[in-house]
Amino acid sequence: MSITYLEAIREAQAKLLRDDERVFIYGQDVGGTFGGAFKATKGLAKEFPGRVLNTPISEDAIVGTAIGAAIHGMRPIVEMQFADFSSIALNQILNNAGTHYWRTNIPVPITVRLPSGGTKGSGPFHSQSMESIYAHYPGLIVMTPATVEDAYTMLIEGVAIDDPVVYCEHKYLYYHLKADKLENDGTPVGKARIAREGRDLTIVSYSAMTQESLLAAIELAREGVEIEVVDLRTVKPLDTDAVLASVARTGRLLAVGESFPWGGVTAEVVARVASAGFHLLDAAPARINAKDTPIPYHPNLWSTHRPNAKVIAERARKLLRE
Amino acid sequence: MLQTAPRGKKSASKKARLPERYLEAFRWMLLARTFEEKLVSLYRGGQITGGVYVGKGQEAVSVACGLFLQRGDVFAPLIRDQAGRSAFGEPLVDVARTYLGSIKGPMRGRDGNIHRGKPGEGQLAMVSHLGAMVSVTVGALLAKRWQGERNCVGLTTIGEGGMQAGAFHEGLNIAAVEQVPLVVVATNNHYAYSTPNEREFACTDLVERAIGYGFEGYRIDGTDLATCLEVIGGAVKRARAGRPPQLVVAEVLRLSGHGEHDDASYVTEEIKREPFARDCLKVAEKMIVDLHLIDRETLQSWRDEASAKVEEAITTAQKEPAPDGGAEYWCAISTGELADPAE
Fold first, then answer.
1. Looking at the whole model, is its pTM more than 0.90?
2. Chain B from 157 to 216: CB within 8 A of any A CB
3. Is the CB of A60 less than 8 angstroms away from the CB of B173?
4. What domains sit in chain B, N to C, each tagged with a CATH number?
5. Which CATH class is domain A193-321?
6. Among A86, A241, A96, which Cα is nearest to A168's?
């Protein structure tokens, strides 16, 4: 038996609905026999009547409704059809959910699922990675699972957390990643994972870029270079200690992310290492991001816009020479 | 009163007038006005940091919003709702604490002035982004429905300015889709900060939007307490009884600046002569006196009592400690162990 990243997300939601009567799923096209644009809720409306609900195309009101339900005892899971459309709900997520506990002492246990990142042909409005925006604001936990196991356990843990969780699930990984079975006890939320051990250079990444980084590490291993790959798992909180510990072992840092280059998760990683671990570095820290343009439609352009294993390996080679 | 409810359902009939609630409502209005006058004087004396936003001229609408809600109901007030908040049960000292920055207040200095609430007790804490609280109220009502709470109502307020925000549209639409027992009370005070109605919307009558959303709609004179109580009270009753969501649009003139920093010099002399520019507190006072519900002596004793309550609330809050940046717990999430270790 094998299970995909997407199936893990569906299974996690089925388990949540089964185990916790406070849970409901709210979003565009999630209900009925349709089960979501990516089928992440396929069959759940039938199995859990009245708890998997289609909504109007009203991202702001979808999240606002979830907030109201959450502060009155429910555990809503919101599915944004694409992460890109969560821009319409930014106000509710950042200014309402993100400020609520701080202001009122009442936490807002919503989980907002964002089908994130690029797949070829999806273009500027169906390919975005929004984690850096959400991580920038106070009051939110931002998850970026890179494996099937994490997709499953982190969604379950995310719904259990009393605070708002932005769960960035990567669309490229939906069908590309498979696991033999689902584990129930993963690494704790907020802790990074060493995805591959190495001694020559640390690559810090998350979500689909962890997979690209692992491919780059395999390629470099053939050249006799041992790359350590740190999978952040959550970008907020950012497990700075794990990153510093890895850089202490390798002396070199390359941070890799799929979002736009100005600021963001990779900049944060580099800043923290430069600030707290400057003495650990044998070379200037580097980072790779997507290009500073909207995300292109054509596969020839898209595959150049998005970081990939080849680019990561090239940059790592250069960094190793420095 | 213009009504856009379905034909044959003239629920807000003349016989439903509520003289027994006039005095109670007037008293809350008086307390709100007295309190806000005190806030203004403190602000002018430099004793309040940040803004002061008052509901002068809107107390009749506001009090009607709070008066008919019960324990278990949800109230999402906005910036000109002191009368309604008090009628709903907000202690005056909490208002003073929030304006004066006491750590004993519900917001503990983390937020101020009208950005306050106790969501655990049914009073949601507004954000400044207009229209955002409509859908939050919808969600609260859905939760209550699923938890088996029957007979509860949610009421949220907005101005004609906020009615033009996208979130307001999404909120009303989703409320009607979910058929939650929601009442939306919109007060057209004729200015969005300084912008007059003709630059805010182009429809003939805002209440006509009710039909488009699947709401039942009513337009009222917001300066007349009797009408406010009758129609807003009726809307609460109808929502509670399972009628579709209710929209009430009340016409008033804002008798203050947007905030106390604003001299409102843009308000024209012409509009100040409109019928909706009357001071609702004076109208209410005349009504209860004319109906012989109260004598002059009692009225004066109520004024004195309101002043005493206001003084007590302010004095209490002034004596309480302010927050301390060095002692503050700088963590925006309840799961402290998941705080980000940023510098």
1. yes
2. 166-167, 170-171, 173-174, 177-178
3. no
4. 17-338 (3.40.50.970)
5. alpha beta
6. A86
